[in-house]
Amino acid sequence: MDFKWHIETAWKLTFSNIVPLILMTLVMTVVSGFTFGILGPVTMAGYIQSVLLMLREGREPKIQDIFSQMRLFFPLFGFVFLAFIAIMIGFLVLFLPGFLIVVAVTFCCIYMLPLMTDKGLGVVDAVKESYRMAVKGQVLDHVVVVVLYMGIIALGGSVFIGFLFSCPLANVFLASVYNEKTGAVPEIRP
User: If we measure between CA atoms, which residue out of 156, 113, 116 comes closest to residue 14?
Assistant: First the structure.
């Protein structure tokens, strides 16, 4: 996998669409905060779909895109609730089991939202397919993708202003890798 190309693509597309991406990130964060995280997963699904359309068709992201996947509210709510319970039980036992559950969920489910929005898969099928994509081929490449994605989010997440830049960058990077893994070659190359 050509990580340099994916990072350059993410960088160029993020900064060529920086204003709409920052506005979308801000609205998504505010909506998630005001609903105590309940609408977080479904607005993130809309965000991911908007980034995929930007990458493939050159379509400028729009704020209303984050509300475009509301049909996924109940499946995503159930998944996040179960994952939250499992993680909390892991952290109650000891710190390490909770941390390992977070790593496992991230490793196995990183492509879940793009698969649900792009391919129309249900939660169970999306998790299975995401796991298959993770272990198919070079597992080390997937580990690097997860580390880069989480690293970009973590670096920007240390400061709120930084998150407004790092969230779009990380998600454009993820969408670019997703396109390569699914064989969907983006038409727009920066």
Answer: 156
